[in-house]
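Entry 14. Ran structure prediction on the chain below.
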Amino acid sequence: MTEPTNAQLRPRRGRPGRPTSIARHGRLTRRHPFVALGKILAGIAVVASVSAFSLAGIAVGDVVTSTKPAVVLVNPTTHKEVTKQQGIAALQGSFNVLLAGSDSGDGNAAYGKRGENLNDVTMVMHVSADHQHITVVSFPRDMLVPIPSCPKEDGSGSYSAMSSQKINVSLSYGGLACTVLTVEKLTGLSIPYAAVIQFDGVVDMSNAVGGVPVCLSGPIKDPYTGLNLPAGTSTIQGQQALAFLRTRHGVGDGSDLGRISNQQVFLSSLVRTIKSADTLGNPLKVYSLAKAAASNMQLSTSLSNVQTLASMAVALKGADLSNIVFVQFPTNYVPGGGAVAPDPAGERALLTALQNDEAVQVTGNTGIGSVQDPTHATTDAGATPPATAGSTPTTAPSDGASAPAGSGGAVALPDQVHGQSASDYTCSKPFSG
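Output, structure tokens:
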């Protein structure tokens, strides 16, 4: 069976023969970043690491040639400074990376008949100026947002602005550059780096690390993705890992919101696996991670050189697991339909913290698709106490105004903002609808 798409909900502009999503300097293939954060962290962390091994010369050259044609963002003058990165010193100050992708399956028949070129997963990774805190925000695919006027991919003009559409149509109207413009308008953040990622990257990445352990609070079956896992902990890789990350009907309430928190179970475990000595101390795994990341991502021009990737690695290598925080952009359901809209209080608190380059602390639960793992402590051994779910920070005001500092000076987000840190052990929650 093939998971239904929401292509029928996509707005039509009455333009017969409108071109598919084509980058202005190279084809923007249809991608999906189900392990977007894991791959971007792996890619930037291991490109620098390979230089420590005898495989360095071969690996770096091979990884660079694996990257696909770069995508030019809409406003390169705004992001001019990021294209001039020289040397392998850490990037200076805070920075943001957007990861987007399509649910089309990149034309692979193994994934069934897919819909149009929709960015059904959109994430932004914010790295603080001191490089000690990383906040990864997942934007629900059905969230209604304004979409600005975006240049057509063939350079023949621009698409009209739209006042309220689901965020996952942005990739269809101007490609990756339009998704970046949309998220910049929504968040008020400058996003100089971006990437699009495909289904097969999940398979390659999970294989490269030798599998990722995930916990399930009960058995999960999903006939749409073919997922069938027992309760407890399973180490998954390859197509099974892809099915786990694609599942929507098997977790939570069957919605995309449940899928986001289920993905965060995998992402947090993937980050722990990548940062473990067993991975970083193994040159073959390091090389495989770099290769898997580069082979399955299409990058913006600002990301498409090994010096920039290595400089990001230097900036990120010291971040503690407890300071890598995954959050779901806060929303409320819109009456009478399957869409959601930003929750004003939660949105204001989250975006203010990001704009002010402040660390965040999740005070709400992990989301409807996951629960805390009762068999593990809430923090990784040796890690500092996490600013995440399960802790008891200073309570944030319910209206989201001037949220007080939580543990370690982090901003305590209102409890309608769900998520976890990479040091939190969580379990996927089976569908209960």
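The two ends are 20 Å apart (CA to CA). Will compare against last week's run tomorrow.
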